[in-house]
Design brief:
Layout lengths: L6 E8 L11 E4 L9 E9 L5 E8 L11 E8 L6 E13 L3 E8 L2 H4 L4 E7 H12 L3 E4 L4 E7 L5 H12 L2 E4 L5 E4 L7 E5 L4 E8 L6 E5 L24 E4 L4 E5 L6 H17 L2 E8 L9 E5 L8 E13 L3 E10 L8
Parallel strand pairs: 9-12, 13-19, 15-17
Antiparallel strand pairs: 1-2, 1-5, 3-4, 3-20, 4-7, 5-6, 6-7, 8-10, 11-12, 14-18, 15-16, 18-21, 19-20, 20-21
Helix pairs in contact: 2-3
């Protein structure tokens, strides 16, 4: 049984500047006997809802190696009796607090996006192009940045971080944004997930919870500020007296969500944002968490299928929205996966 396997990890610390540590880095491996390991606890927290992914290490004060702020750590997890550990994240150490008996190390992925603040106006740029420029300013590599909505003009201001602006663009386009296992930024539409992981009750699942609630709306109307190029290609900069003819609308029903976004200055943009908001409301109505034996293969943006759960209506396919890997000497290696529905509502006729 997987539950009886011993956790395995490989932590590789490197100097991202290319000086200090050798290019191969300093490697900390789990011992064959877990009780002899210098790492007493390890947590990897990954998510899509904003903020940086986090790695938390509790290290014993043994040996000469002392991880320092600024070092980059690559985390690989697995089991000693299985194959090689799989990489789950790359993060940069931002805190290393020692005490008499142990040292707590905290590392963050894409944390530079939260520290980066710039003032810039983009003209005739897609959301993906804007995201790539924000990532470049922060020094963060991009794995994927889909185009999304095209904005005649879009203003980035230093009152808010690059991470905040990327989150707003993701919400307007209906995209996911997160860091992949290499610590690179992903800004993309969910189209079913790269991989579908199956977890069965009585075999993999230790605990599961599903929350269902009515969607916040079954109809969305999005207003911009412009005639939406209906008066010519240059009319995006005008202010319309009556916005209703240029509003984006999606769904049908009595519960209407009204959104006003000044950045949406074409009818194509408002329509796309309306569909994105309706999809978000529909999918957000069904969420949950499943606790399984360690599953380093599960990544953000993957699909997840639950099978054999006794509770009616729980079995089904969902999208992975958060992953928490935890290794402790008392509980072993477990993975808690946050998920939500992948249901997509139809657009309004």
């Amino acid at each position: 049984m997987t539950a009886l396997l011993r956790p395995s990890f490989v932590l590789t610390f490197r100097d991202p500047g290319g000086s200090g540590l050798a290019s191969s880095g300093t490697v900390v491996r789990s011992a064959t006997t877990p009780g002899a390991s210098t790492v007493s606890a390890l947590r990897v927290e990954l998510g899509m809802d904003g903020g940086a992914d986090r790695v938390v290490l509790q290290l014993g004060q043994v040996g000469k190696f002392r991880p320092a702020v600024g070092l980059q750590v690559t985390v690989e997890l697995g089991f000693t009796e299985g194959g090689d550990p799989q990489q789950v994240t790359v993060a940069t150490i931002v805190d290393a607090d020692p005490d008499v008996r142990s040292r707590r190390v905290v590392a963050l992925a894409t944390e530079a996006l939260q520290r980066t603040r710039i003032d810039r106006t983009f003209e005739s740029a897609t959301a993906g192009a804007i995201v790539r420029e924000l990532a470049k300013a922060a020094g963060v590599d991009v794995a994927q940045a889909d185009d999304g909505i095209t904005f005649p003009a879009y203003v980035i201001d230093a009152r808010r971080s690059a991470d905040h602006h990327i989150g707003e663009l993701a919400a307007l386009c209906g995209f996911d944004r997160y860091a992949d296992r290499d610590g690179k930024l992903v800004f993309a539409f969910f189209s079913g997930g790269r991989t579908s992981h199956v977890f069965e009750h009585g075999q993999h699942i230790l605990d599961v919870r599903v929350d269902r609630r009515p969607a916040v709306a079954d109809k969305v109307t999005v207003l911009g500020e412009s005639p939406g190029a209906s008066k010519g290609d240059g009319s995006w900069a005008w202010f319309a007296r009556d916005l209703d003819p240029y509003a984006g609308k999606a769904g049908s029903g009595d519960r209407t969500l009204l959104l006003e976004r000044a950045a949406l200055r074409t009818s194509t943009a408002t329509q796309r944002a309306a569909q994105a908001a309706l999809t978000e409301a529909t999918r957000g109505a069904t969420t949950g968490e499943v606790l399984v034996t360690g599953a380093p293969q599960v990544r953000l943006g993957d699909a997840l299928r639950l099978s054999g759960v006794a509770e009616p209506g729980v079995d089904g396919t969902y999208q992975v929205r958060s992953v928490l890997h935890a290794i402790a000497k008392t509980t072993g290696f477990t993975t808690r996966i946050g998920f939500r529905s992948i249901e997509t509502p139809g657009a309004a006729p």
